[in-house]
Specification:
Layout: H1 4-14, E1 26-30, E2 33-36, E3 41-44, H2 47-50, H3 59-71, H4 84-95, E4 99-103, H5 106-125, E5 131-135, H6 144-148, H7 153-156, E6 166-169, H8 174-180, E7 185-190, E8 193-194, E9 200-201, H9 204-216, E10 220-224, E11 248-251, E12 262-266, H10 268-271, H11 287-300, H12 303-321, E13 326-332, E14 335-340, H13 345-356, E15 358-359, E16 361-364, E17 367-370, H14 378-393
Parallel strand pairs: 3-15, 5-6, 5-7, 7-10, 10-11
Antiparallel strand pairs: 1-2, 2-3, 4-12, 8-9, 11-12, 13-14, 14-17, 16-17
Helix pairs in contact: 3-11, 4-11, 13-14
The structure holds pyridoxal-5'-phosphate.
């Protein structure tokens, strides 16, 4: 049997020290559960950071990946494959937008968006129309472009100078937004519900103001739905609850059923800005991941599932608010967070994992985030609540 210390020591010796890992080696998963190398079973309420919306080892996704991998895995974007167009069509239909560009990750979908809106700005207003307005406390990824749009010091420190031409405004501050958006702005980008920022939603009024100002100044409104999209909130896209429609949106996390894929989806106004040679990448939208994503969407876009997610989410939110030491619970659907009265959320998360076998995530000292698979059952939800309560009530043993 593989030995935990062996595995951990080797990583400590040979990996760049970029990840603070929990002392757990996951060997396999099934549905809402993961199993460590010694066979212990954990209830997974992080789902690979919102990726495993269908849980682990979903039979249909496994079958599609297996069958396609045996035919052809990679061909590059010099040629057509059978699935990329179908996937783009499905995403466009789902969003009412017109064209898709595929990437390997969320951050790369954001990079694509950034290049697109810069090019669109240049086309309509010249080289000075290049400013992007983003939100404080946002998260758009770790590459230099996406990082420049990420309004959290903890991700940016040590990496200056940042890409120029980004203005930050506080979420839901319409006044600050008005002051920031002028004719030099080519885009406003925001997560309708901030994920890494601790499950913080933009209000309808703020989103409507973004739309109005983007229109007035010929800027693109981009919604980053990488975490909150694809059914997570009980809607195909989180923004649909607001009635405000973007010019482009980004998606990723849940899309590939665990395989890496992201997409930038744009409306008509932005659809013809980029021409062959302007942007591209070696891997994206390949036959395996595109076939898997088509199957994922088939399962995730069931209206009955969305209704259930809304219902489950409302119930879970009410129950979370009643837990000991919790001062507030927030979120929509199965994208939820609790706020603790003390700054020991990381300790509670560690205890929940190692002593109560419940996988959770802390987005900050007082905030615990829950992103369970969307296929979670009532019994699994009740069990997770019992374990979270136990973790909140107990003292750390480790
Ligand atoms: C995770 C995330 C990203 C970055 O995606 P990666 O696949 O990690 O590069 C960007 N935006 C949001 C809203 C995210 O949640």
């Amino acid at each position: 049997m593989p030995d935990f210390n062996d595995i951990a020591t080797r990583e400590r010796n040979y990996l760049l020290n970029t990840y603070a890992r929990y002392p757990l080696v996951i060997a396999r998963g099934k549905g809402v559960h993961v199993f460590d190398i010694e066979g212990r079973r954990y209830l997974d309420f992080v789902g690979g950071l919102g990726v495993n919306a269908l849980g682990h080892a979903h039979p249909r996704i496994v079958r599609v990946i297996r069958e396609q991998a045996a035919k052809v895995i990679h061909i590059s974007n010099l040629y057509y494959n059978e699935y990329q167009g179908l996937l783009a069509e499905k995403l466009c239909t789902l969003s009412g937008l017109d064209r898709a560009f595929f990437s390997n990750s969320g951050t790369e979908a954001i990079e694509g968006a950034l290049k697109l809106v810069r090019a669109a700005g240049h086309a309509t207003g010249g080289a000075d129309k290049c400013v992007v307005v983003a939100l404080e406390n946002s998260f758009h990824g770790r590459t230099m472009g996406a990082l420049a749009l990420t309004g959290q010091a903890k991700y940016r420190k040590d990496f200056d100078p940042m890409l120029e031409g980004v203005r930050f405004v506080p979420r839901n501050d319409v006044e600050a937004l008005r002051a920031a958006v002028d004719d030099s702005v080519c885009a406003i980008i925001l997560e309708p519900i901030q994920g890494e920022g601790g499950i913080q939603a933009s209000g309808q009024e703020f989103l409507a103001a973004c739309r109005e100002l983007a229109d007035r100044h010929q800027a693109a409104l981009i919604f980053d739905e990488i975490q909150c999209g694809l059914g997570r909130t009980g809607h195909a896209w989180a923004y649909q609850a607001s009635g405000v429609v973007p010019d482009a949106l980004t998606t990723a996390k849940a899309l590939g059923g665990g395989l890496p894929i992201g997409a930038l989806i744009t409306g008509e106004r932005l659809a013809d800005v980029l021409q062959p040679g302007d942007h591209g990448s070696t891997f994206p939208g390949g036959p395996v991941v595109a076939a898997a994503a088509l199957a994922v969407l088939d399962v995730l876009l069931d209206p009955a599932l969305h209704e259930r997610i809304q219902d489950l989410g409302a119930r879970l939110l009410a129950e979370l608010a009643e837990l000991p030491r919790v001062t507030a619970a927030r979120g929509v659907g199965l994208m939820l967070a609790v706020e603790l009265e003390t700054g020991d959320a990381p300790d509670v998360v560690r205890r929940a994992l190692l002593e109560h076998r419940l996988v959770l995530n802390a987005t900050g000292p007082t905030t615990i985030r829950l992103l369970p698979p969307l296929i979670v059952t009532d019994e699994e939800l009740a069990e997770a609540l019992r374990r979270l309560r136990a973790a909140l009530e107990s003292e750390s043993q480790v």
